[in-house]
């Protein structure tokens, strides 16, 4: 049987970022050092394959600290946690390791700095996302107002318009966020911003790579989880740039009808999706198409983060 030809553009960079890589290593090292089980509050990163793999090694995922037995080690997820969580862990004299991404911690410190200088903070982000809950939980209730949309930016009422700062979730759409910031700056000219962009390098780089793919492909597959903010933004970016974007967690999620009329396919992976899932998807494609694979490199990443001293000393 002759297979239909399919050009496949594979985005580079794609998949794991330095913060995700660090968080997974923290869980693995904790299991090695303390022995199983090691408890993890919330999904360490938003990827079922990763979570199930760590569970098989001895990680137990829980929603809250009250589910962790006395004396058991606990890890906080890469998304960050409200200050009340480590405070509770210390009250209970728990052994805990914080796997918060250093770039999320940077936003936490910015929020604290602005608050200490008397500014009210506007946070651009998605309600209910663990990172937003963690960041807003760094300060007393009411110190931060959440801005989700351009409409929010245009209509939000604040008590002291001349004394504001903004921060953002690290995994937002770069283009959407720029529009929201512009609207806020138009209304509040003295608005203070971050010294360096809050949206992380990995989110920005993966969105730029998808723009390039979508300019050449009819369909872009994004490998990632439905609760992964950065993965959902990649699908939106593909659609915005003229391609059809589809999110898949595994090769089994592919609907082969998507490929009707597709001569060129783009593939990328969200920052919490492992490379093995990219290989799985390409393997499934190879059973149906004669593939011509091209790596499309838009930038090179060399970011690494130190592991906590508690696990390396």
Could you give me the name of the CATH homologous superfamily of the largest domain?
4-hydroxy-3-methylbut-2-enyl diphosphate reductase, catalytic domain
What is the string of helix and strand elements?
A: EHEHEEHEHEHEHEHHEHEEHEH
Distance between the termini: 58 Å
Name of the level-1 CATH class of the largest domain: Alpha Beta
Mean pLDDT metric: 97
Count of discrete structural domains: 3
Low-confidence runs of at least 5 consecutive residues: none
Principal-axes geometry comes out as flat
Question: In summary, what is this structure?
Answer:
The protein has 313 residues and is α/β, with parallel strands linked by helices.
Question: What descriptors fit this protein?
Answer:
38% helix; Cobalt-precorrin-4 Transmethylase, domain 1; 313 residues; four-stranded parallel sheet; Rossmann fold; alpha/beta; single chain
Describe this structure in words.
The protein is an alpha/beta fold. It folds into 3 domains: 4-16 and 201-297, 3-Layer(aba) Sandwich (Cobalt-precorrin-4 Transmethylase, domain 1); 18-101, Rossmann fold; 102-199, 4-hydroxy-3-methylbut-2-enyl diphosphate reductase, catalytic domain (Cobalt-precorrin-4 Transmethylase, domain 1). 38% of the residues lie in helices and 20% in strands. It has helices at residues 18-34, 48-57, 84-91, 102-116, 130-136, 150-155, 174-187, 201-214, 229-240, 275-286, 309-312; strands at 4-12, 38-41, 59-62, 74-76, 96-98, 120-124, 144-147, 164-168, 219-223, 244-248, 264-269, 289-297. The protein has a 5-stranded parallel sheet with strand order 10-9-11-1-12, sandwiched between helices. A 4-stranded parallel sheet has the order 3-2-4-5. The N and C termini lie far apart (58 Å). The mean pLDDT is 97.
């Amino acid at each position: 049987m002759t297979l239909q030809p399919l050009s496949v553009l594979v985005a580079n960079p794609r998949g794991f970022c330095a913060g995700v890589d660090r968080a997974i290593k923290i869980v693995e090292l904790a299991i090695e050092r303390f022995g199983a089980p090691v408890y993890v509050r919330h999904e360490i990163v938003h990827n079922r394959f990763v979570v199930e793999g760590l569970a098989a090694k001895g990680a137990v995922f829980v929603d809250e600290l009250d589910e962790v037995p006395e004396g058991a080690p606990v890890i906080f997820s890469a998304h960050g946690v409200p200050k009340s969580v480590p405070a509770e862990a210390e009250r209970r004299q728990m052994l805990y390791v914080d796997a918060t991404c250093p770039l999320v911690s940077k936003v936490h410190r910015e929020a604290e700095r602005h608050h200490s200088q008397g500014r009210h903070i506007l946070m651009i982000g998605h309600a209910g996302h663990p990172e937003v809950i963690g960041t807003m939980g760094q300060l007393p209730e009411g110190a931060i107002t959440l801005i989700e949309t351009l409409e929010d930016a245009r209509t939000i009422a604040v008590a002291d318009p001349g004394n504001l700062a903004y921060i953002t979730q690290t995994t937002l759409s770069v283009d959407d966020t720029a529009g929201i910031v512009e609207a806020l700056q138009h209304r509040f000219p003295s608005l203070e911003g971050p010294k360096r962009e809050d949206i992380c390098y990995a989110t920005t780089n993966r969105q730029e790579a998808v723009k390039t793919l979508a300019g050449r492909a009819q369909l872009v597959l994004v490998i990632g989880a439905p609760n992964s903010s950065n993965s959902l933004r990649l699908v939106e970016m593909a659609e915005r740039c003229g391609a059809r974007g589809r999110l898949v967690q595994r090769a089994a999620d592919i609907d082969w009808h998507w490929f009707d009329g597709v001569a060129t396919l783009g593939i990328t992976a969200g920052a919490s999706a492992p490379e093995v899932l990219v290989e799985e998807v390409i393997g499934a494609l190879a059973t149906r198409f004669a593939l011509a694979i091209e790596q499309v490199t838009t930038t090179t990443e060399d970011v690494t983060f130190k592991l906590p001293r508690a696990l390396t000393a």
